[in-house]
Every structure is written in C-alpha cells, then in structure tokens.
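Cont'd.
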Amino acid sequence: MFTNERAIGRPVVLTFAVVDRDQFRPVSTRATGRSSPAGATEAWASESSSTISRIPNLDAGPYSVFRAAVMEPLVPKRRLCPSAVYPTASASPPRARPVVVATDHILEKLLALPDPFVSLEVSLERLLDSRLLEVEKDQLVDGAMEAGSALLEAARRSARRRASMHNCSSWPLASDLTIKVFSKLDTQSLCHAAATCSMFNKCATDPMCYENIDLTAEVPKVNNTVVSKMIQHAGKNLQSLKLGIRSNPASTTEFRPLSYSTIHPMEASGLSWSQKRPRQGRETSLLTRSCLLALSVDGSAAGTLLRRLHLYNIDKMDTSALCTALSACQFLLDVEVVGLHVELRRTLDAVGANCHHLERLIFESSDSGRDDSLNSSTCIEMVNGCPNLMSLALRGFKLHDHKIRILIKGFHHLKIVDFSTSYAITGTFLRNFGSGTNACPLEVLILHDCLHLKEVEVSQALSAMLAGDFKFLRYLDISNKDGLSAENDWNYRCYNPCKTLISHVQKQRPEICLLAKFPPEGSLMDIFGDSELSSGTSFGPYFTDSSENSYSSDQGSGNEDVPDLNFPFDLDHELEFV
Amino acid sequence: MAKMIKLVSGDGAEFEVEEEVAFQSKIIKDIVADADDVIPLPTVSSKVLIQVIEYCRKHAAVNSFPLSPSSSAAAAASSSSSISYSKPVSDPALRAWDNEFVKLNNSSLFDIVIAANYLDIEELVDLVLETVADRIKGKQAQEIRRQFNIENDFTPEEEEALRRENSWAFQNN
C-alpha cells in the first residue's frame, strides 16, 4: 500500500539524499567490466539501512512504520538475488519495491548533476572506453539512448500529470457546471475549449454541449461531415442547429423586433444589402445540398428532436433538399431560412405540411423580389398547418395584399409580422380590421423598405390607429429609403408622407414605437457608391447604388411596364426627417 | 414588516434579509418551509454571501412589479419561441444592472456561481455561467489557457488528433 502513494514515497528518497555522498559512488567506479551493478545496489541497500538511523528529525509515527514496511524487504531481497539485472521500472511486482527505491536514488543523483549535458557525455565516453568489445560499446550506446528516452518520456508524463492536477485545482467548477458553461458556447469556441486541456476535453464530449449546434461563421469553414458529427455528439440532447454564412452573428441572434427596445432603432434594419448578397462560387461549396441529411437518417431520429433550424446563405442548398429536411423535423418551433436559393411556395408547403408546432418563421429571399411563387392556397395551407405561429417574416419576396391578409387573419396567435423589402404589397391588407372580434392582433408590424407601400394606405392605417384600432400594436416600422409610393404610380414617391398623422399617433398612442424614416430628397443626387445601410448611421442620408438597387426594371408591383427607377427625386420637397 | 430570514456565512457573520429576497434561493425556501428561520451556510463566505444577497434583493424587487408596456412587447417577442433558452431577462434596465453586476474577475465569479448553485438560485447561476462562457467565446485554445490559468496536459499525439478532428475550427490560426 505504501509504494503506491507517491506522497509517502518521497520521504524514502529524501532519506537517501541526506546521507553523505561518498557512501554512494557512481556505478562506473565500482562495476568495472561488469554491466550489472546489482552488487552495487546491494551495497547501497546494506549501507542505507544502517545509515537510516543516523537521519535526524524523522517522525516516529508514519515514517517508522513505512521504514519497517519498505526497508526490511529491501535488504533480504537484494541479498537473495545477487545476479539481478540492473533494476528497471518493468521489473516484476515482487521486486518492484526494492527496485523502485534503488532507481529513486540513481535518478536523484542524476538530476543533481551540475552540468548534465557535459558530464553525462564525458561519463558516457569514459564508459565506452572502458568497454573492450565493440558489441559491448554498441549495447552501451543503445542502452544510453533507451535510458535517455525513458527518462524523457517519464518526465513528460509527469509534467502532464502535474498539469492535470494543476488544472483540477485551478478550475474551481465541478464538471456539471463546466458542461453548462460549454453548452452556452458556439460550436467553434467549444472546439477551442476542448483543445485546452484533458479536463475540458472530457466535459466537451458531454451531449449537453451540443444542444445548440451553431456552426455559422463569417467565412465558409464547415462541411457536411462536421455537421453530421456534431449531430451525433448531441445525441438525444439535440435542440437547435444553425448553419451557414453570416456576418456579425452576435447582432442577429435575436429576432429583429427585440432591437426596438435598444437605443438605436436603425439596428432593426439588420444587415446591409451587400452583406445579404449570397456568396458565390467555391466559397460556400463546403456545405452541400446534403448537409442536412443527418437529420433524416435513422427514421429521422435527429430531426425529430430538433426544435430550431437556422440556415444562412448556403449556396448549394436547393428546394427539394430543404423540403426533405423539413419533413424530417416535425417538431420544429423556430425556422430561419435566409439567403437560400429555394422557392418560397414549395418551402412553405413543406412547412405547412410538416411543422405543425411552428411558432416562428423567418424567410428571407436570396433573390430580392424575383420570387413571386407564393399563392393563396399555400397561404391557406400554412394557416391550417401551423396554427401556433406567432412570429412571421417574409422578406424580399413578391407578396400580394390579399395573400398577406389570409395569413394575418388566419394565424390566430400571430403577433409579430415583418414584410420588409417585399414587393407588390401596397398596404391594403391593413384595411378594415375594426376593433371588435376582427381586431388586428398584431403587436409588431414591420414594413421597412416595401417599395410599393402606398402612402394613402399608410394614412388610412394611421387614422385607424388614432380611432383605437390596432389596439395591440406596440411597434410599427414604415421607414423607407425611397419614401412611400404615391397613389396611382409607384414611381412617384412621397418623401414626407403622413407627417401630421405620424405625429398624432406618436402623441395619442405613446405605447406604439413608430419608426418612419424617409430620405432627405436632393442629397441623393450627388452621391454614387456603396449603399451600406450600416446601423451606425442612424440619421444619415440614405444612398442608392444602381447595382445594388433591387428596384430595377423587372420589379414592378403589378403588370405595368416599369421604367428603371434609380433616382426618384422630387426636389421640391423639403429635406426632413421624422 | 416583512418576515426576516437570518443567513449565517461560513466565517460566522450574520445577515438578515427579507423573506422574498432569500426565497430567490430554492434551497432556502425549502429549509424555511420546515420552520427554520436561521440558516447556516458554512460553505459560503461573507464576501460572496453579500454579493448573492445583493443580486437577490435586486431581482426580488423587479419580480414584484408588473412589466412596463414597452418591455412587455419585448417579452412577447423574446418568448415567441418556447425552446429552452437560458431565459433572457426582458427588462433592459435589469439586464444592464446584471451586466454591471458580473463585471468581476474570474475568481469572484466562480465563488458566486458555486454559492448560487449550492443555494439553487437558477437565474444567478445562468447569469454567471453565461458571463464565463462569454469570456471563452471567440478565443483560441492558448488564450483560453492564459485566461483561466490552465495548463496543456495533452500528449503531442492527442493534440494533433484533436486539431485534425475539428480542423474547421482551427483554420484561422
């Protein structure tokens, strides 16, 4: 029992060290011509037992017992086997105790050498000289190498053991709390944490750390294998999966409306246009259309667990692959699909058919207004298929008012709605909600940058708000970098729309946070260039960039032929902000 | 006068707190239910107990007032998904207070979370663990070691295997 305890083992070594050095000469001077220093060991052993009694300050208690247990066998055993081979760590257990103690002494001496690099080499050379046969010399050199690497390995192992022990005392949290910390990390940070030390590595293998798999990044890094591996790690704990490319993941972790409670309302606009542009070419080729296959295997074992699925700018994802994945995830509560080249109608059909528990759906087009696939029957099926939907965003699609109305009237729990950057929508869907049982249930309504949103419809809605309708509304965003559309021709813009109504609503309905930012006309003429709508320039002028401008010729609201809309100015209006 | 509970720290200092403050801790709530008003907490030092009480006091006060209209809509937005997130504190003022509260060094944070875990104050545990996680996020392995005084105890082979396995995560090196 004592030999296993390193802590108790130490005193044994110390006792030797205190003794007069001359009594323990190096092996070379004694064992001339013999490779086995067993005799020397024997001599040490006999001398050591007699010298022990000379050591002062040894406690009578544990040390004496220890000495009795360890020292006594040492002497007889050594004497019984005079031809024993040089003791090594691999000696058989019955010999282990005396062998280990002798090695301790040798090691102690070795480590006490003042200039090991020089003295060891010199001694080795001298030994070699003392060997007469070539084969003996070879053996000596080989032995030296072996001993050297053995010592190096042992020292490294000890260093690692000490590092592990240090970590245990340095990191005060038990593994359950550590695992909880790790479960809050994004997956990349988790990998880094796992690479710091073995304790963290062990904690990082716990399935709880993979509850929320976040493999989003600003540049493409992850491939399908990583995705399926992470899903495997999560096991039964899988809850959430986020994949793809997006910038500033921190700023978009929450649905936009939350930002309205912050100081900078402009943050509600989210990413700038250039950031939303999907990456092309080889960049996103690491994740392919099959990246979600892991959700469908094993009878959709993983898919069934998933509650949240967020996909961003995965170039190679197509509609059928996405629909297959959605059909495997019947219990999804929260879906975000941003910048994927998928068709709105087919995707919503899949959602309505499979995700009956869905509460939140964010769908942002990669194609800026070109997708007009949404039809009324899809809307009806969505309404029937996802009765619990509370939060809906359809951005950058062609949406007609009557279809929107189906959605708003049909989802009984719908509170938050965002149709930013959508086309065709004019605002007629806001009419005639009334204040009775038909009252509009919306709390948050975002119609940011809707090109065809008409001033007259907005006026009507604002008047209704003044009359008490929209009583649940708390947040309204009708800001538009091109002003609002005039009644008959959306090419004609109103830059200072509904000014009086807006200020009335702000006074009479103070609980509504009303965002109505429109550009100062005239300033746009001079500036060509990037159209970065960064959140920092909350009150700066808006710029249009002809290449980024999605309001190009084929984006008409209806059937009319539309001239190119680049700089819709009416210089007679005054520069003003709301 | 609100009912007072007496908490005794590890170094023997006594702290009297209102019941609703102390009841932020589920453990204390259970103990008091067994009709015991003086609660010894031998594993919690005075310094840590003071900080924990401060947190509980602030959160007990907030919990007893109804949410203002602007924050209730925020609550509606944030609760739009019933997935088990760590629940975000919906009141921005309280969130700001929490952020100030956790501006402590690692050692103090650890003391607090261990005490809060022992006392079963879920929100405080979550808050501190979230803070610790934030201090790990975005860092390379070596930085994490420096930050938390951890040593590398991997063999070269183990380290190589780890980096290979998750090479995507180490690409920026």
